[in-house]
Amino acid sequence: MAPSLQAQKNYHVPRLPVELNFDGIPDEAAWQIIDELPLHVLAPVFGAEPSEKTSLKIAYDDIYLYVGGFFYYDDPGDMRAVGKKRDYDMPTTDWLGVILDTYFDRENTVMFWTNPNGVRSEGTTKNDMADPINDYNFSWNTFWDVATSINDSGWSTEMRIPFSSLRFQTKENETVMGLTFVRYIPTAGEWLTFPVISPEIAFSHMKASQTAPVILEGIRPKKTVYITPYVTGGMGQTNDLNEGGTGYKMSTKAKFDAGLDLKYSLTSNLTLDLTVNTDFAQVEADDQKINLTRFSLWFPEKRVFFLEKSDVFDFSFLGGNNLFYSRRIGLSEGHPVRIYGGARLTGRVNKWDLGIMDMQTAAFEEKPGENFGVIRAKRSILNTNSYLGTMVTSRLGTDGSYNMAYGLDGQLKVIGDEYLTVRWAQSFENDSVNRIFDWSPSRLMLNWARRRQQGFAYDLVYTWSGDQFNPGIGFELKDNYHGWRTITQYGWLPGEEASLRYHKIMLTAYTFWNTATRLRETVNGMMTWSFEGKSGNSGNANINWFLEDIRDTLTLGNDQASVLPGRYSFAYISAAYNTNYAHALSASLTAEAGRFYDGTKISLYAAPTINIGTDIDLGLTYYFDFVNFPGRNSRFVNHIAGLKGLWTFTTKTSLIAFIQYNTAIDRVVSNLRFRYNPREGNDFYLVWDEGLNSDPTREIPRLPLTSGRTILLKYTYTFRF
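Request: output the structure for the sequence above.
Response:
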């Protein structure tokens, strides 16, 4: 019988009377007098009896929020203790997650996760996880501690999170937060939660709106100052064409740099971040991709400085489109650009979410130095999950060039699971006619959605992007278009006897017109069946149909083929399958085959992963594209093969190797990253990047084997005051 979903009463978190012995075993007398919080099965069978016993408690003192738990197993051999790397996030291991809606705004959370090895992995969610692909990020880090212990009956943990690492509001000596506990048992594919959370909503265990209200009294964290200087040293080598153009000559340049970051808690709900000569040498390399679409490729932000309270700066037009895209700052076509420094203020004041950022970059190649600014404000209205907001962005070049944009937006939770979202923006720049009452530099999105996983749901969107709309610090998958998109679906939770936990049928359709010519460009229809098995496997099958009107020649891949102007109607099928990641050997597989414009296309993707003990993860990625236009005697084949290895000696040390070979550019790209992290804010990195030309004879003069390499050492140390 499914547990009751009645409204959760406020839970008063008990204050600890004495200091704890922080050893990962919550067995002190202070823990004994605290009540356990009951966990309930969310999946695979909602409301079933948990397969294993759990004892989980929460408490606090003047400095920390504490979590203590015992996670029992009838057969300890069923426990999975895989992964030791900082920020490990794979579902191959047992997990305990603590999800906090610290402002109790029912929109955003911070998450703290650990496993039997004592991994520290944090993340954030925004927009109440309306978009499961773009609304969470596991690259955010903060200061907290965890200790664990493995024993004959399972494992246990103690977590302590400093209040100085959280942002919250206090009213009349009380602080209200939202709390969700999550235990994941991989061998059973079982998710347990506190409070009771309905499976009718996708990713419900990570949603701020599903957290239970908890009350803490009299918490007044210190106004902590974190000062983190860094130093880097190393060398960079590049092979450049000589003056005569007859060959290449390698040049070596020493690299040395220094800078610092400062974080100051102005109040419990406002944080000031300052950065001087920002460095991102520790950031992992991007995964290479081949573009076979009419849309731009989107890459996620991985730089920690831009991830703190990134939800405040979100102004999404869905699908990755955003008025603010932080990768515009300090990156130019994938190349790093020096950031001299900047400042950011984020937080919440009463019902207002506030974000202010200003960054200054150096000149790079032909581009001038630039100043990037953004101001964001949102105010809660009417009910939870409803707000009104505004954003202003600026991009000012030292050569006098400028680009500015503003946006107005609002979301209204109408009733139940029905949401209406409206966003409007305009951009203004030099060398263009700037008029407020003009659709050309404007952007509009209207979205009505019923956000449910079970039963009938839909997502209706109308979007407009004018032919002169150009957000200087934003991202647009496609320029100069307007149209609509509809998604309708029906989902089932079959019940205890079925082998499937969940499955659904979904119909997607969209059509876009060119805003300048008013001519139709794209029509798409897709029918999808997707499923999640109780054994942990998942997959989908799709039938896709496109009608494309090409006005200008469309270039594909790395200029390997083109599609001529004309009207094309084509269809193809696709499917994907993912095995249970709890197994030592797991894999993700995707395939597409069918018509493609006036030709055919076959695409494959495979990503097998193997866990060797608790210390070594090896993963392969393989992309294959075969595109053939027989009527024009044009074809090409692309292969991208990648190897990613992770070796974790302890929870404080890790070695990551990432190598990719791309036949479209005849290049091997490698990234090696060693990290020693004795505590949060204290890091030593060794980073090696190198590019190799796999076909040096493709150009005259002959290319060198090595296109360039960088070797860097980086050390950071955080002082706390």
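The longest helix spans residues 29-32.
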